[in-house]
């Protein structure tokens, strides 16, 4: 037994940014070093995601996680005690085998992921390095370009508008710190514009302004005005990123846009988005078509893939095999990496490896249900993913990530290389 062997595993219930229970795991090594991680949770989940195990019943709307916690404290603890925390692949393979299902439905992806990530933290502490450097080795230097939400929507705002995230990216910034400064100005300008229009009504689930609009285009217009009011050159310094999250309103090739009061087929949806792309400085679009519409995804990518980042979230669910299949089909050119969509770090990293092999870009992403946990910040740098999506520019669970990235950028000092616009996924064909 090495002294980095896992001596003790313990999970407890903590609470996320939506006031729901979630799983926090602690891992203690034989040598006294320890690691801790908390599982996040989504609201607009892809059907191919690993299962977030909830208790059901009356308490806390059915969202309690007593079974997931018990799974960590009994079966999982027994199975991983004595394993070397530095061997993430072996640890994750043990967790996957122990669960025994294709989607972590027995033990719960929330249970499994908290342990997978806590082990990485413990191993990093043992190595005397921050997690990002432990993961990357001494070569870590790529600081991601952030996607930051200005207006919320979709499932995160009571479906007030169809589109889920209206975000900005700052490809013209020359550091992460500057990208945050610019975003702060745009966020403030958007709030002022909403106040002037008499439509300021607080914030949505991830902290973006509540979308008091009567069309999706109104939101896009307002975002453009906010960027201009803040004084940035459209598209060049600050551009728009959208998460359509269209699996939320699209099924079987039919898309029901509540706000626009119309139903579109796949071609109609592509036309609608193409109109927006020609009119607004859009740099990135996530889930433009639904998870069950790979043909639509491929057609959209054929038209726009050379000039636009096309991101698969619900469509790819951080899954290596799906990334390879999508690449073979020419559908999307970028994968969103959400560790809890798979349940282990090893599987999530495999999706990024598949992406690199097929010419896809990647964005490490938070969920709508988040906490103070900043593991994804370290994954984004440690894996050199190049992009990071965390939600808005308010609220502690979001700012915990942005602020942690500021610390990482500072720690790297002159070696830090801000990704800027160079990492924006576009088909290399
Ligand atoms: P979710 O949304 O965490 O609620 O699933 C985030 C996203 O769709 O990117
Ligand atoms: Zn999404």
Describe, in plain words, how this protein is organized in 3D:
This protein is α/β, with parallel strands linked by helices. The mean pLDDT is 97. Helix 5 (176-196) packs across helix 6 (216-229). It has two domains: 6-128, Enolase-like, domain 1; 138-424, Enolase-like C-terminal domain (TIM Barrel), CATH 3.20.20.120. Helix 12 (375-382) links the parallel strand 14 and strand 15. The protein is globular, with a radius of gyration of 21 Å. The relative contact order is 0.15. It contains 13 helices and 16 strands. It binds 2-phosphoglycolic acid and zinc ion. Residues 243, 245, 286-287, 313 line the site of zinc ion.
Output the CATH topology of the largest domain. TIM Barrel
For the secondary structure, the number of strands is: 16
Physical arrangement of strands within the biggest beta sheet: 5-6-7-11-12-13-14-15
Q: Give the overall pLDDT as a whole number.
A: 97
- Enumerate the spans where pLDDT stays under 50 for 5 or more consecutive residues: none
Strand content: 15-25%
Mind telling me the C-alpha Rg?
A: 21 Å
**What small-molecule ligands were found?**
2-phosphoglycolic acid, zinc ion
The CA-CA distance between the termini, in Å, is 50 Å
**Biggest sheet architecture:** 8 strands, mixed, barrel
CATH level 1 name of the largest domain: Alpha Beta
Name the overall outline. globular
Total individual domains: 2
Quaternary structure state of the chains depicted: single chain
